[in-house]
Amino acid sequence: MKIKIGKHTVGDGYPVFIIAEIGINHNGDLDIAKKLIKAASDAGCNAVKLQKRTIEIVYTPEELAKPRENPFGPTNGDLKRGLEFSFEAYSEIDKYCKKLDIIWFASPWDEPSVDFLESFDVPCHKIAAACLTDADLLEKVKATGKPVLLSTGMSTQVEIDKAVNLLDNNNLILFHCVSLYPAPPEKVNLREMHTLMERYNVPVGYSGHEHDTILSAAAVAMGACSVERHFTLSRDMWGSDHKASIEPKEMEEMILNIHLVEQAMGNPEIRRLPEEVPIMEKLRRVNNI
Questions:
Q1: Burial of 107 (C-beta count, 10 Å sphere; 0-12/13-18/19+)
Q2: DSSP 122
Q3: Are 214 and 246 in contact (CB under 8 A)?
Q4: How confident is the model at residue 223 (pLDDT cuts 50, 70, 90)?
Q5: How many angstroms separate the CA atoms of 19 and 21, rounded?
Q6: CATH entry, 2-283, from 3.40.50.300, 3.30.200.20, 3.20.20.70, 3.40.50.150
Q7: Is residue 211 classed as helix, strand or coil in its secondary structure?
Q8: What is the average pLDDT across 183-202?
Q9: Which helix (H) or strand (E) holds 74?
Q10: Distance between the two ends of the chain, CA-based, in angstroms?
């Protein structure tokens, strides 16, 4: 099965679709967002992804009122509001991505955010693992007719079954994900990707939060059609997601390794390569089977 996202075709037999998850690593600063987009483009990513929330819907008044010292003020609400970009800021992001010829989209965390993103005609929508059980949000995203990228972190098989049943299997990519930040290798469990492929018969990607880039290349070797990684300019920056992100040089390294894996995958046919014949004639002593 294949899914069209903008100019890219995603699925078995097609180049791996690589997403830099900017999320909230822009720290509410449009200039930092642009630097991240440029770094992702320079590294060879196909897309960048952000997160969009309507703060008063996603968080309770009690949660917003909690004390939390941050650059925007003394409460959690100050932080959450400070990290949200305006329509004007997203318009700048839209123009900048078009200039660099890189796709952008986002994870909407509520229904009004879907309408907000649709005003920019994004090519797809990503459902965060935390939103997998939000039936109303899933229905809203499905109604757009756009491809849906669904992360399965922190979810049971029953929950994933229900989410997949709500969505359109012909327009869906599942992303194996472990919601630990960062995720230790022994918890990543890449074999779950094969379970997702066999059970739901949809393309499967990998959304990783580990520090290294080796597991992302391993995921591609196991059949991942897309790789999403949290992306930062530096893990030393302030903010909750930077520590579980990779930096530009690491993204470049990861993409190089993914391309090497793609080249090495080949096909399942067992055959003797023409280039092997001279070696065979030189080294094989007996050939009487």
A1: buried
A2: -
A3: no
A4: very high
A5: 6
A6: 3.20.20.70
A7: coil
A8: 96
A9: strand 73-75
A10: 41
Q: Rounded to 5 degrees, what angle do the CA atoms 274, 276, 279 make?
A: 135
Q: What is the pLDDT of residue 161?
A: 98
Delimit the domains of the chain by residue range. Answer: 2-283
What pLDDT sits at residue 57?
A: 97
Contact 211, 232 (CB under 8 A): no
CA distance 212 to 189: 15
Count of CB atoms within 10 A of residue 88's CB? 9
Q: How far apart are CA 88 and CA 138, in angstroms?
A: 26
Evaluate whether 103 touches 47 at the Cβ level (below 8 Å). Answer: yes
pLDDT at residue 94 in the model = 98
Which of left, alpha, beta for 131 (phi over 0: left; psi -120 to 50: alpha)? Answer: alpha
* C-beta separation of 50 from 106 below 8 A: yes
In angstroms, rounded to a whole number, what is the distance separating the alpha carbons of residues 215 and 207? 10
pLDDT digits (tens, 9 = 90+) for 64-116: 999 999 999 999 999 999 999 999 999 999 999 999 999 999 999 999 999 99
What b/e sequence results for 45-75 when a residue is b if at least 16 CB atoms lie within 10 Å of its CB, and e otherwise? bbbbbbbbbbeeebbeeeebeeebebebeeb
Task: Note the pTM of the prediction, 2 decimals.
Answer: 0.95
